[in-house]
Every structure is written in C-alpha cells, then in structure tokens.
Amino acid sequence: MMAGSPGVGHAEQAAAGAARSALSADSGGQLPVGWQITGEGAARQLVWRSDDPVPVSDSGVEFYAGDRLLGRPVGSRDGRTFVLPLPDARREELSGLRARAGGRRLDVAGAAEAGPSRRPGVTAQPPTRLPANAVDPGKPGTYRTVTGEYTLPSVRLPGLAAPVEMRAVVVAPTTAPGHRPLALFLHGRHSTCYTGHGEDVTGDWPCPAGSKPIPSHRGYLHDQKLLASQGYVTVSLSANGINGQDYAAEDGGAQARSSLVRQHLARWADWAAHPASAPRIVRSSAPADLSRVLLVGHSRGGEGVNRAAMDSLYPPPADQDGYRGPVRWHIRGTVLIGPTIFGQNPTPDVPSATILPGCDGDVSDLQGEMYVDGTRGVSRGAALHSAVYVVGANHNFFNTEWTPGQAQAPAEDDFWAGDQPDRVCSPGTATRLTAHQQQAAGATYIAAAARLFVAGDDRVRPLLDGSNRRAPSADPARVLTHAVGGRRTAAFLPDDQVAVDGGRLCAEVDTDTTTACLNPDAGGVSPHFAQWETSKEPGRRAVALHWTAAGSGSTVRVRPARAVSVAGSKALALRVIVPPNARDTRLDVTLADAAGHRATLGRVRLDGLPGTDRTASLWGQEVRVPLAAATRSGLDLHRVTALELIPRTRSGRAWLMDAWGWRAGTLTVRAAALPRVDIGRLTVKEGNSGVRTYHVPVNVSGHGSGTVRLFVADPASDGATAREVTVRPGSHSIDVPVEVRGNTRFGYDVSHDVFVKAVRGAVVGAHRGGVTVRNDDPLPAVTVTPVADRVAEGRRLTWRVSLSAVADTEILAEFGVLPVTGGAELSTTDVDPQWLLDSSGASPRPSRPLSSVGGLTFSTSVPAGRTNAEVTIPTVTDGLTEPEETVRIQTTVYDDSGQPRTGPVFTGKVHDPS
To answer: Chain-centre distance of CA 151, in angstroms?
Structure first.
C-alpha cells in the first residue's frame, strides 16, 4: 500500500474527488459514518470527512485499517476533508478504519486507541544514574543579553499563494567580544491565529479580522537566553505564513521552510557587511559570524532546517526555490526537536543532534530517528549524527507558546492517553516530565550541540554520542543517546550484504509478518522502523534475536559478505533494541577473524526503556565493549569475519541495528561533492482521444555520481517496483514514461507517483513527484425520479438516480432527511434498524422522527459504465393503526471540483397495509 504525503502538490486534484461516492451494493455494506470510497481502479480514493476542523499538527492525519497504516491523506484547506489515493482497495481490506493524528483517534469522539498496558512495571530511573559529564552546557554564561524583534517586508515562496512574513525575535549578547556564532530557530506546524476568546484557534493565513497571529516564534526564548549568555547571537523565525498554506505542499512545506531560513540568513549576511542597514535589535547585538551557524528546528521546522542545510550545500532547482542568491554562510550543525522527516532524506555531511521525546503525542512514531539511520553509508561518514531520547518529554512543551499556562494563545498537552491513564506519559506519573523540566533538558542539549558542532568543544561530546554521561542541568530528566558517524568505522550493518545464523535478518518496513522486524499484532513501535512512502521498502534491515535458553546454543552470528576492519578502534559500539520495560537483558559479544580465531570482548547489559502501547520505546541503546581482549588474543582486527551475540539470560528478544568500531573524538567535516536528485510533478490533461506519453520530471544537479533507490508506484494496484539507479548530472538514468489515453467520459484525476531515496554518494531534495492526469470531461448531469414513493409498511421507498452519460468512475448521490411540513413524520421505528445503523450509527429506540437523527445520510452510487442506480428506504411493519407518514429527502451531488450541490426535495409516504 502506498503511504501518501503529508501535503501533496496535487492536493487540488485529490480534493476534487472528495466525498463523492460511498461503498455501495458491491461492497457488502457501508463504510463507517464519515468514510467514503470514490473512483474506480487507478482513481480509487478513500475519503474521510470530519464534522469539525482537525487541529493543525506537525505529524498530519494518517489513515489506518485496524493497526495497518494505509497512508497519509491530503487535507483540504478547511481542515475537514482528507483524501488518500487507494487503488484497487477491497472492502475486506478496510475493516476497522481509523483516522489518527499523533496516535490520537479522530473519527470517533473520545475513543482510546489502546487499553491499559499489560507490560511489566515501569521504573522512572535505572538502578544507577549515569555519571555526570565533566562539562555541563546547561549552565548560563556570563554575557549580558538583549532581546528584541524585527519585521521585514513579506516574501513570496513558490507554491504558496499568500506572502510569508519575515518576522523574528533576537536574543543576543551585548558584552561578548568579536563576531559571535549565530543560532537560528524555526518552529513547527501549529495553529496560526487566535482571537483571545476561549479556545478559538485557526490555521488561516493571513489571520482574519478579529484574530491575531500565534507567536510560536517566541516559544524558544529560554533556549535563546541560555545560548546568548554563552556568547551566541540567536534569532527565532515566525513561519505562520507557511503553516497556513503547506496543506497543499507535496513535501509538507520543507522546501518553503528552507527558503524562509535562507532568506533570513541572507539578510544577516547583508547586515554583517553593512551594519548600518540592520534593524535596531541587530545593531544593539554583538555582530554575527555567518561562518559559524547552528540551525535549530522543532517538528516540521526540523525538516525545514535540514533542507536548508542541504540547500546551502547542494542548491535546489530554481523553480522550486524561494531563495536564489549566493550562500554567504556556513552551517556547522543542526538540532532537530521531535522532527518530521517525511522524505527520509537527511543531509549526511552536516552534523546533527535529534531530540526524540519519549511521550511525543504529535510525531508519535519518532520518525526523526531517520536523521541518524538514514545517513549510514550515504557519504563519507565523518559528520556525527546523534539521537537524544528524552524519557517523559512530549512534543509541544519544548515551545512555551505551545504550553498551557505559558502560552499567549490556547495550548494543550499533545500526549493523549484516551480513557485510560498512561503509566509512562500521563501527567503526574514518575516518568513524565513537567513543562519546566522538559524545557530545561531541551535547552541543555541544544547548548551541548552548539558547543560541539560550532565551538568544537569535544568535552561535551559524551553527552551526545552514546557515551552514557548526563548533564546535571537536565536533571531529573533521563536522557539516553546514540550516534553514528564521527570517528566510527562501519563494521556490521544489516543493510549491507550479510548472512545471519541463529537469528533472523528482518525487514524494517514490510507487511509480511514473517519478514518484518516487528509483528504489528504484537504491539510496540520502533522509531527505527518508521514507515516511508511504501508498505515494503528494500534496503532497510536489522537482525532479530529471539531465544528461550541462555548459552551458546542460542548464539546469533552475523557474517558480512567480506571481512571488515576495526583496527585502530578502541571499542565495538553496538546499537541494540530490547523490549520496553524488559529487565536485565545480557549478551556476550564475540568476534571471529578470517583465520577462525575467536575472542569474547565482554558482556553488555540492557534494560528496556519505559514504555506502553502508546509510546515508541523500541529504541536502540548504544552499548560498547573494549577491543582489548581481541588484541590480547591475537585476533586479526583487520580481517573480522563474524560478530556473535550469545544470550546470558534465559529468554528474551532483541534487535541489532548495527555495530561499529569506535574511537573517541570527532572529525573535521567537509561536505562531499555529491549529485542531488529532485523529483517534480507534471500535471496534464487527459484529452479526448489518442495516446500520449509523458515523462516524470527529474532534476539531477551537483557533481559526481551516486546511487539512489527509485520506487515507481502502480496507480492500478497497491504496489510499487523498486530498483537502484546510478545518477550523475546531465544523465537521464531516471526515466519514467507514463502513457495517457484520452476519452470523452468523466473520470477522476489519476496520479502516477514516483519516490526516490539516497543509497550511496547522493542526496535527495524533493523525494516524490510524478505525473498527474487531470480529468477534462464534465460530470454527467444527475437526475432523481421516483420509482415507489408511496408504499405500504414493510415495503421499500425507492427512487432512481440517472446520469446523462456514462462515466469512467462511479458517481455518488447522497440523501439527507428534512423535517416534514405537515402531518406525521416517518420515525426511527418505522424503518429497518440495520439500515438506520448503517446510515447514522443510531438505534431505533426511543422512537423519534427521522429528521431528528444526527448524521443521518444514505446514498447510492451509479457504477462506472452505467447510467442509473436505485436508492431505497426499507420500512418495517409495526402492527399499529397509524395515519399516513411522510419522509422528505434532499439530494446532494458533487460537481467536478468536489463541491457539494444540493438538489430538489422529494417526498415519500408510507401507509398501513390494506
């Protein structure tokens, strides 16, 4: 199954098919209230309509069938209608439909997604606290600071209709000598406007009269003040103009946010060259050094600053970019807080630290882990990429303007436990952090990244690279880290060609439960296994361990295709996942060389992270064993041929993500000259006749050659083909032709989608695109005529829906019930109770007029290739002597732009049997 994008460039086309047809007689029953299926074959779509606007969030809405992710639908501007392309969907595959955002169910009010956790007990802290690091970056510095805002003329960005504001708040040192490094903050996707009355917020832009912008950019003042006291000039940008318009962006707004960041950096470069032209707050600050820039992004802001780092090294296509000037800055690193990464396209040669909130209720799958995992093997591997897992932190509280009690506008705790308190994340539990505790931890680790990436202070590295040190300023938060890159040497990476004995080489993303690393029926979520655009993804693997006895009989052996070298390393670093709340998992670690010598390096011990069914706690902890034993035994570290893991506990499960030769320190990072791939989208008209061939637009820029994995979705099925492709600027190695057959029959738009992901020696900007074929034929006229509109009890009231011409897709006619204007009205006990349940979710008792039943709608679809269908109201015999009863119904059809159009009112009458 294809997973849709958070916001799609062809959203107008997709939305045009919204709410037009329902599963009818051929489906074996109706979908739940609010759900519909539109179209046929390649144009088939799943539609959900919410009674109220869905709150703006970073993760966006997801559709599920039970626990199976169907994809991310395209939202409409009003935040009510969501459409997911779902070719060849079958009714039996769509049982248990659910709309979720951040793990919270949206389509049933108050519904909890999981019952009380039955997992083992949860402890707030491990038996012993981690030792304190030698340097604590959370301590304020000695410089006095100044705070102020600037507002510049708004800018226009590609794909956004309204201009985007150029507004920011600056906190900077006033007494620091010389030019100071610059830290730029970008907030995530949040509501844009509020009125100050109650809980009224919107996602509009510009803000309508009577409302004002939510100051999300002022939510990091605590982080800014800490950095400014330590000598950094800081600036936090407002991005409401993007948040209010990115629902229609194919990449969820990543390129727009990058453009906004670089627009501000360009102004700072101008002001550095011409100080007198700067705003007053900038002139009052220490001058900024644009050769030392740190980017900090929260949620979709994280994806935005990652793209800004990429765009600063590898320019995007000019027609997609909102900044086309020179790059007069050097980005030394990024900090990404609960980020999205819909494209799973990190910038490999810019160091990063990704903060993963253990109680994130918005980006609840913690997909930001891909900023670490997705860099492995892509480039030189010199840049350190760190993941910082903060137990008990939610998504919103890193921003004070998204925090109840601190925000000017209405705000909420994004973690939602449903009807049952969560033993890890509900407020007041031993593991859940307060807002102030979470903000202190966030500020401390942002400062740690600044000190390592920008200032080059290696003393803070142990806080970020899995060395098991803590920063006292972040107490009482429990923070764990792991990393790739730096001075690590790749040793055992399951993504490469490896063989596994005694365990299972598993697929991180696969619908086949015998192949997948995690069985969805077993519960649990792993950030490492975050789904991308397809339900099966080659090239992402781990090693699964499952044992029922301790000792050598349960040994798992990992053998690479060729011998690897860890010579010069001090330790072997492994990233190992164990189940949440598991206690005392112990594994012996052994290496073997090409001559058959073996050496046991030592034993590792792991406890699972605190977790429940609502948290993404299956996260890889970094453990290290010294290589001294291998050296003493004479093992040839230049030619290591096997890694063995021997369980020393009676039973358990674990997953090996990878293993590396480890040395302390970091390396000087120089970005490699790489090719960059961007997929575009071509929109064409179907035409009236003939066959035309179009090609998916692909742009390859940059330098050198590299390898990407190309996925081509089949619009007539739920599958995609994948292949590796070598790309270089000027080549045409990615060529995806699309044949379009013209006709004069109405049909819905069809998208032929393509996705791409970097494998080696390349970067990817716009990861998805394709060819969208627009229907250019008018919707047939729809008429309704009575067939049996006066019947005896027990018979069916029947009307015929007719089309003026056949169509290539089914056409829906919906009916609502209106109050009668006189006489007795048909009641809930006069109709078939199953029909009433299917049409409204209501029960017949107590008996009441049909027009008083909330949400009562019924429909019929005229199948593709036919011109009529019938719609009925089945009545029942009640044995009572009653006057003739009446029902009034009104039709609604949807025009070819997806807008509802109400039609005539029809009357049906039911009398007692004669």
So the answer is: 31
* Residue 294: strand pairing partners: 183, 333
- CB neighbours of residue 127 within 10 Å: 8
- pLDDT of res. 51: 67
Give the mean model confidence (pLDDT) for residues 366-370: 98
Q: φ, ψ for residue 311 (rounded to 5)?
A: -65, -25
User: How far from the centroid of its chain's Cα atoms is residue 233's Cα?
Assistant: 31
Q: Outline where 496-643 has alpha helix (H).
A: 628-632
pLDDT single digits (tens) 797-814: 999 999 999 999 889 899
**What's the number of CA atoms in the CB half-sphere (13 Å) around residue 655?**
24
State the amino acid at position 669 in one-letter form. Answer: V
pLDDT score of 697 more than 60: yes
Token representation of residue 141: 């510095």
Token pair of 450, please? Answer: 């600044």
Give the mean pLDDT of 281-287: 97
Per the rule left: phi > 0, alpha: psi between -120 and 50, beta: everything else, 348 is alpha
Maximum Cα interatomic distance, the chain, rounded to a whole number of Å: 102
The strand ranges marked E within 497-561 are 498-501, 504-507, 541-547, 556-560
pLDDT score of 9? 31
Which ranges in 803-872 belong to alpha helices (H)?
833-840
Contact 412, 428 (CB under 8 A): no
Helix (H) or strand (E) holding 691: strand 691-695
Is the separation of the CB atoms in 665 and 461 below 8 Å? yes
Contacts of 531 (CB under 8 A, 6+ apart): 3, 69, 365, 509, 537
Any idea what DSSP says for residue 269? H
**Cα separation of 57 and 48, whole Å?**
17
Angle at 533 between CA 164 and CA 773, to 5 degrees: 75
pTM: 0.88
Helix (H) or strand (E) holding 308: helix 300-313
Average pLDDT, the chain: 91
The rounded distance, in Å, linking the Cα atoms of 193 and 210 is 10
Q: What is the pLDDT of residue 99?
A: 83
Cis peptide before 206 (omega within 30 of 0): yes
pLDDT of residue 13: 26
Instruction: Round to the nearest angstrom and report the end-to-end CA distance of the chain.
Output: 55
Look-up of token digits 């985007």: 164
- Please say if the pLDDT value at position 530 is more than 70: yes
Place of tokens 């179209």: 39
The one-letter amino acid code at 773 reads V
Q: What is the mean pLDDT of residues 227-238?
A: 98
Q: What is the DSSP letter of 133?
A: P
Report d(CA 659, CA 498) in Å as an integer.
13
Residues near 44 by beta carbon (within 8 Å), at least 6 away in sequence: 37, 38, 85, 86, 87, 88, 89
Strands, DSSP E only, in 192-310?
193-194, 201-202, 212-213, 233-237, 288-298
Alpha-carbon span 190 to 241, nearest angstrom: 11
DSSP secondary structure letter of residue 470 = B
Residues 716 and 744 sit within 8 Å (Cβ to Cβ): no
- Residue located via tokens 């050659």: 705
Question: Comparing C-alpha atoms, which of 149, 140, 146 is closest to residue 171?
Answer: 146
Instruction: Give the gyration radius of the chain's Cα atoms.
Output: 30
CB distance 886 to 823 below 8 Å? yes
Q: What are phi and psi of 449, to 5 degrees?
A: -65, -40
CA distance 460 to 470: 10
Q: 846: cis peptide before it, omega within 30°?
A: yes
Closest CA to 483 of 305, 621, 346: 621
pLDDT tens track for 748-798: 899 999 999 999 999 999 999 999 999 999 999 999 999 999 999 999 999
- Residue 63 CA to residue 72 CA, distance in Å, equals 6
Task: Give the pairing of strands 288-298 and 331-337.
Answer: parallel
Per the CB < 8 A criterion, the answer to whether 371 and 303 are in contact is: no
Length of the chain: 914
